[in-house]
Amino acid sequence: MNKSTFISPRFKDRAFRIFAMCCTGLALLTLALLLIDIGIKGAARLDWSFFTNLPSRHAEESGIYTALAGMVSLLIFTLIIALPIGILSGIYLQEYGTRNRMARFIEINIANLAGIPSVIYGILGLELFVRTAHLGNSILSGALTLALLIMPIIIVSTREAVKAVPSSLREASYGLGATKWQTIRRVVLPASLGGIMTGIILSMSRAIGETAPLIVVGALTYVPFLPEGPMDQYTSLPIQIFNWISRPQYSFTVNAAAGIIVLLLITFLLNGIAIYLRNRWYKKTSL
């Protein structure tokens, strides 16, 4: 008889559990070492001048002021473009869309778009917005590219949040004589707002950390001025970190580590807000 037949299922379960715990511990240990290394290198560089200084050829005088301003401007235009289209698309697909093969095809492709590598969106933005629309390497072209990137996330999260609203609320609204749009606007949207906001914040946290699509559409690595409009050239914090880390001088590596700390803090803050809103929304809908 095969020796594997004498191994009990309980032993196999315990062995797999230990193996999974070791893999998880190894991943967490690697992450902890990376964070500790970044913290040791960049913590001393985090001062007020680092946030208020313009980029410079001298690492000690260089800061992230223009990178932060470009990132905020890029994020604002991205949300202005992506939010109306994403939220309304999610509402339409869930509340108005018919359940047929075409609808299922669209739903599957929207879900697949959320998993496409971001550099593909950068190539699409380069051809569609930079070259065809002649927007150049402006904030608007970068915002349109990032809007395409985060729109599937917003659509999927909006659909799931709207779907989670109990049907009894809709039926009660219809029973009082409300139309479908009145029911959606006054009942469904307020009840699903927490889930929609969670998806929006998670998409924001992804957008601010993207580097590849911005490099493809022409974001600059050195911008010594603040952007004043959507057609201005720009840089972003991930692009600035990429510029610093590519320099051979160790002092620029320290600046890059400090920039990574700032970017991580912003991302953790956004994800923390998303988790809080999700838990609060879940408690409200479970009552």
Keywords:
11 helices; globular
Shape verdict: globular
Output the structural class.
Answer: mainly alpha
Write down the overall mean pLDDT. Answer: 85
SSE pattern, N- to C-terminal: HHHHHHHHHHH
Q: Approximately what portion of the residues adopt beta-strand conformation?
A: under 5%
Query: Mind telling me the C-alpha Rg?
Result: 24 Å
Cα distance, first to last residue?
Answer: 56 Å
Proportion of residues in helical segments: over 70%
Largest sheet, in brief, is: none
Number of helices: 11
Q: Which stretches are low in confidence, meaning pLDDT under 50 for 5 or more residues running?
A: none
- Give the beta-strand count: 0
Structure description:
The protein is mostly helical and 287 residues long. 74% of the residues lie in helices and 0% in strands. The radius of gyration is 24 Å and the shape is globular.
Provide a concise account of the structure shown.
Helices cover 74% and strands 0% of the residues. The chain contains 11 helices and no strands.
Lay out the secondary structure.
Elements: H1 9-42, H2 48-52, H3 65-96, H4 101-113, H5 118-132, H6 139-163, H7 167-175, H8 180-208, H9 212-216, H10 237-245, H11 250-286
